[in-house]
Amino acid sequence: MQLLRRPAARFVLLLVGLAVLGGLVALYGPPDAAAIDAYVSGSGRAAPLVAVAGSAVLTCAMVPRTVLAFVGGLLFGTLAGGLYVLVGALLGAAVAFGAGRVLGRDFVLARSASRAEGRIARLDAWLGRRGVFGVLAVRLVPLAPYGLMSYAFGTTGTRFRDFLAGSALGATPTSLGYAAVGAAALTASPTALAVGAGALGLLMLAGTWAAGWARTRLGVPGTPPAPAGAGVTPVTPAGTPPRP
């Protein structure tokens, strides 16, 4: 227990835990849709609660949220399935954020403090001020690892309320989109499947655009600013070459 009082030890524990969870998901794959269907269907009236709780647990285990939303659409339809998975994913994201904050925040804060002018410090400070935009830009990209990024945001200066707001705004359209694809697959409707897939493609483009917009318009730290006077052509009398 004395060892866990050290920020570096807690951070290593976080990394090991994430590696184990990621390894298990990679080894065994996401839960089988048929098994989930049988389990949830057998829960009767408690099926929505089981779907929410299961989505929360599987989100913490870093099972892709897209898979969960797809299965939710298969089981409950577009609207209900998407909302059940969204609520569960937000609960799981809150738990993952808390784990990242407890186990990794002190270590990252110490590293950024030791490099006060570095990129990590600037990004951490920006997320503390405008974290909702950073979270939203990440959540709008369906391919971004939802569970892993929830742990990662916990180690940054992002405020919890900003994290939840950005997650809710960004995850709602993708959750409903993948649920729509799942529901369309159940009904074997080519039109609905095409609409759902097209909507997800637009969301991916929107997420990419949002990330670029946040970087250029909101001052997201990236490339260090050029030194004063860099790129300025020296002014010399006509016909006189500038001095080296």
UniProtKB/TrEMBL annotation:
InterPro entries noted in UniProt: TMEM64, VTT_dom
Main location: membrane
Cellular compartments per GO CC: plasma membrane
Limits of the VTT domain: 63-183
Region Disordered, annotated ranges: 224-244
Segments of skewed composition (Low complexity): 228-238
Pfam hit, one: VTT_dom
Compartments, as annotated in UniProt: Cell membrane
Membrane topology: Multi-pass membrane protein
Signal peptide: none
Family listed: Belongs to the TVP38/TMEM64 family.
Name assigned to this protein: TVP38/TMEM64 family membrane protein
Gene source species: Longispora fulva
Organism lineage: Bacteria, Bacillati, Actinomycetota, Actinomycetes, Micromonosporales
